[in-house]
Amino acid sequence: MFILNSNADYRHPLASGDAETLGLAAAEGVERHLRYRENHAETPLISLSSLAAASGVAAIHVKDEGQRLGLGSFKALGGAYAVIRLILEEAEVRLGRPVDMAELHSPVVKEIAETMCFACATDGNHGRSVAQGAGLVGARAAIFIHAGVSDERVAAIARFGAEMIRVAGSYDDSVKEAARVAKERGWTIVSDTSWPGYERIPGLVMQGYTALVCEALRQLPAPPTHVFIQSGVGGIAAAIAGHLAIALGDARPVFTVVDPARAACLFETARAGHPVTVPHAEPTVMAMLECYEPSLVAWRILSRVADAFMTVDEEHAISIMRRLANPLGGDPAIVSGESGGVGLAGLLKALADPEAKAALSLGPDSRIFVVNTEGATDPGRYQEIVGRSPDEVLSRGAA
Prior knowledge:
- The structure is a single chain.
- The protein is of the alpha/beta class.
- The chain has 2 domains: 2-73 and 201-398, Rossmann fold (3-Layer(aba) Sandwich); 79-191, Rossmann fold (3-Layer(aba) Sandwich), CATH 3.40.50.1100.
- The protein has 17 helices and 11 strands.
- It has helices spanning 16-21, 24-34, 49-55, 79-95, 107-113, 125-136, 151-158, 171-185, 200-219, 235-248, 265-272, 296-305, 314-325, 342-351, 354-359, 379-386, 390-398; strands spanning 2-4, 45-47, 59-64, 117-122, 140-146, 163-167, 188-189, 226-230, 254-260, 308-312, 367-372.
- The strands form 2 sheets. It has a 7-stranded mixed beta sheet with strand order 1-10-9-8-11-3-2, with helices on both faces. A 4-stranded parallel beta sheet has the order 6-5-4-7, sandwiched between helices.
- Helix 10 (235-248) links the parallel strand 8 (226-230) and strand 9.
- Helix 2 crosses helix 9 (200-219), helix 6 (125-136) packs parallel to helix 7 (151-158) and helix 10 (235-248) packs across helix 12.
- The two termini are 39 Å apart.
- 54% of the residues are buried.
- The mean pLDDT is 95.
- Keywords: Lyase, Pyridoxal phosphate.
């Protein structure tokens, strides 16, 4: 399914608060924060020139978040950043003075952090980031996981010392339960989705994601003409679309949001013109995108700066994992998890659809930017789908 943005807010300026959250000064602050993080390094921008030639476009560049901060996902930028910001803000309140990022590992900040507990619901990647952020400064973390989260992903979060709480039902059920328990126990919810009255912290999570856009704009040989970004609740898509609109202005690229067909809450929201909760259906292989209700902040941004919305099916997600592991010509291999390559899958589907291709003005001069949002965060599942382990894919690609 494919639709152009026809909402009343389309092409209107971002709300002032959203523009501040995703603006240039805020993004510079995120990058400064990253300089105090161990394992920080810019993630690579990979050119798929053979795939671009075969697809009839000028360039395809993939920002590979598969090694971000040792967590294997772009979400390493969001939850941990929000936790650290909240700890420093609490330190300022208790100490009655400004507290700089440089004091993050000081005894006085650690003493304050040890009194705090951060909670969130997760499909896997966001929870790892929140747990890691809390662990960096000695705070506690309580992570709510729903029935569909694999044991391997649970173990990956638990290794950061988080308390793991399993919830029956879907991701949205775990969001509600995390909010209920956190309120009852005085914990701080660090969610990557927002609801009425709860926007600032999801805004901080989204703000953390702007770092990958800043890096990409420095790495790209020319600004992209088209961007395809996958969506769960909408946070990563909104962060990228919003920052690009601010950074590039009238030269911003044509931006398409890509949903799983089985959990198309942003697509249906765009079609209805207001936030829509879609019914739970058969689970999707795109587990990190299996969300049935959009973030209100993300929708407010995307309604203004996204140009199109589309869905991809299960076979598209599986096919792109295998294609990235077995690239054309001299293109390098990329390890992409079940949700990681969905933006690229959306591009290839749009190119194969004459109406979508024409509506987006895709052609031989198009320069495409996509994000591999996760590596093999569940290596066992990855090997089942691709037929080789992540290490085998990368070693063959380097051979």
